[in-house]
Amino acid sequence: MCAFGKDIGIDLGTASVLIYIKGKGIVLNEPSVVAIDKDTGKLLKVGADAQAMLGRTPGNIVAIRPLREGVISDYDVTERMLKEFIHKVVGFQFFKPRIIICVPSGITEVEERAVIDAGIQAGARRVYLIEEPVAAAIGAGIDITKPDGHFVIDIGGGTADIAVISLSGVVESASIKVAGDQFNEAIIKYMRRKHNLLIGERTAEQMKMEIGCVFPPEEELTMEIKGRCLLTGLPKLISVTSTEMMDAFEEPVERIMEAVHQVLERTPPELVADISTNGIVMTGGGSLVRGFDKLVTARTGIQTVVAENAISCVAEGTGKSLESIGDMKDGTMNLSRRKQIN
Ligand SMILES: Nc1ncnc2c1ncn2[C@@H]1O[C@H](COP(=O)(O)OP(=O)(O)OP(=O)(O)O)[C@@H](O)[C@H]1O
Ligand SMILES: [Mg+2]
Q: Which of 66-75, 183-192, 207-216 has the lowest mean pLDDT?
């Protein structure tokens, strides 16, 4: 327990930022979007307010998503966004908070450094990092401290993190830049190729949520889609089915499944035995696409479930790890690596 101010946990995601305060739980959940005035460089809006402006801004305003594929692509904007969000939840406090930020397991040291610096610049006294799949497992209620293997697949907006966890550490993992965003892109490509219809990212996102699926659906769903016909240039209405979505998603799905198989292949046999008993847990918003658990079960032969709190899992796990903040080294070390070193 910290004597000065509040310690906070942040899930700095590609799609959204969630902030957890010890004793309070999740206090902020906002899209990772910032609107900036191009002429003055002034930050106009952050989060949900800025998201409403995406794709709809007049010339002098830009709405930016400063994180892409799980890492910071616009450092300055990320820092300003974090500062706003932190300020929103802690307000003014005399002592700066200690912050745990969760990062994808595959990030480089340079990228780690960027996250730490952004946290410090945004007002943290100290920044600690935790790997996303470790946080996801803790958030899903798994006791990761035992010598027992657990398999986690976290599919976010920008990255899919796949990891085998035992004794609080990552034993094997893969992090690929294929997740919810790429599913949207796949829908846009499919609509263009199959229907000669141009649609925007928002429409693709709606389609993914309403009719998207990756395993033969129990009931066929259909949705009316409005877009611009590529042949006439005029608006056009087309009816799309969930079975078509399976076609659209084939490529990103196969890439994720390939990574899952690779991680399983590299996992030591004792842990594979544990995993076949414990099952696979899926977290992250991307795992909510219909039928993902069924697909993974069918392809691996291992019982797979989507965590109940799939979207908030990582933030909750990051928050819970605040309890062991005293054991963590600040800076470039993170929970799982520290444990592996010891
Ligand atoms: N019900 C749903 N069905 C399908 N996809 C969904 C659903 N809800 C959210 N998503 C998708 O989940 C993704 C966001 O998930 P999440 O919040 O876990 O990502 P993130 O943690 O911000 O990203 P990352 O971990 O890659 O940095 C988005 O691509 C969103 O479209
Ligand atoms: Mg995430």
A: 66-75
| Mean per-residue pLDDT, 86-114 | 83
DSSP letters, 288-303, are GSBTHHHHHHHHHSS-
Alpha carbon distance 186, 123 (integer Å): 38
What CATH architecture does domain 144-178+260-311 belong to?
2-Layer Sandwich (3.30)
What is the rounded CA–CA span in Å between residue 295 and residue 301? 10
CA-nearest residue for atom 19, ligand 1, is: 156
With H, G, I as helix, E, B as strand and everything else as coil, classify residue 193: helix
Q: Which residues line ligand 1 (CB under 6 A)?
A: 11, 13-16, 70, 132, 156-159, 179-181, 205, 208-209, 212, 284-286, 288-289, 311
pTM of the model: 0.89
State pLDDT tens for residues 17-45: 999 998 899 999 999 999 998 888 888 99
Cα 4 to ligand 1 centroid, rounded to whole Å: 34
Q: Do domains 8-31+69-135+314-341 and 180-248 have the same CATH topology?
A: no
Domain 180-248: CATH superfamily is ATPase, substrate binding domain, subdomain 4 (3.90.640.10)
Level-2 CATH architecture, domain 8-31+69-135+314-341: 2-Layer Sandwich (3.30)
Q: Measured between alpha carbons, how far is 306 from 199 in angstroms, rounded to an integer?
A: 29
